[in-house]
Amino acid sequence: MLSGSFLWIAVGFVVAGLGNALFDPALNALILDLAPEAHKSEVMGMKSTASSLGSTLGPGLVVLLTPQLLPRQVFLLAMLMVLALAAVAGLTLRGLRA
Length: 98
Description:
Layout: H1 6-34, H2 40-65, H3 71-97
């Protein structure tokens, strides 16, 4: 455990929330700029689905995998998952542009 204090955990969540609040509108604008007009709602739906799945499954996977893996292995596994999902998303978006 990194912190036994509720205050530091709450501060961490506030900072993460502020970071997300600053990042998410710009990400949505970029996605809408890049998406073809006919597929904008579909692309935003995929973005929302991916975000929700990541927020739900990510912490659960960390809890399940952390006891069996070293911290570096958890990080590398997370990195590989992000890269794989980004590749799938890129290929899906490329297919929508065609």
